[in-house]
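Continuing the batch. This is chain 6 of the set; chains 1 through 5 are on the previous pages. Same settings as before, nothing changed between runs. Recording input and output for traceability.
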Amino acid sequence: MLRWLFAGMAATVILVAAAAWSLKPDPASHTAPPPAKPSIAFAPSLSGTQPDGEIAQGKGDLQLNQALLMRFDYYLSATGERPLAEIMAQIGRDLDHELKPSAAKEARRILAQYLQFKRALGELAKNPALDGQALETIRLRLATIQNTRSRFFNSQEIAALFGEDDQQDKLLLERLAISQNAQLSIAQKAQKLATLDVQLSPAAQQARAELVQHLTLASRIDTAKQAGASAEQLHQIRSQSLGEDAANRLAALDKEGNQWQNKIETYLAARNLALNTQPPAEQNTAVQKLRDQYFSVQEQKRLGAFE
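Output for chain 6:
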């Protein structure tokens, strides 16, 4: 849950119905499962990376914990770069390759519930009352996410899949409350924060440090962009924090994002012109011609958020 607290709820919106078929095991996969990891990057943004999260325990038994969701999210992060059906197929290959058939079936059930949960988060993101970084807004957002989560997972699944996140969220909110408490002196705040840090496991301390690093870097990049920083300057900021390889991947994503935004703006201008100049009976045809001119069939599925 920690990864959604400060980013709002810009979760990947998954169309579960469209991917329902891909949750079914491939009959051939039980006799000769293909390699779980593709020989080339599954998507451009994943270049130079390996799939996150260990999903198996022992000899192919399912390991129900946060790492399982990390594996799902690794591939779901490619939404927009690859069709959902292909993403689901790759996750399925991972499950069949690393798990026993019965465990793979159970993992598919968890995946289906997780997709429904993320879809519900996408709906929550439309609620303006949950948008913002004020402490009380963050508390409300977390409570809403947890209530929504309980619609899709039972208490045992929640403890296994989200327990670590929940503990980190609790401590993080306590840290925010201390930091924003105007009645405490700097020394008192430091003492209370140090007391909280003792409660963190080494893994949680690392996770918090990574989150702080991510938020700090995001803030620096945002400030630099507003000040008109060049691509080279943004690259230097990222490479200092994340290393050259990660900075190169982020630069490539920036370039793709800018190209997509430019294409969207050009299309919307042409679309508005068509809607203002074409007779009503011909507008739909004219707009579809523009869609075909500027976008592939797969890209057109993303236009709903911009039109």
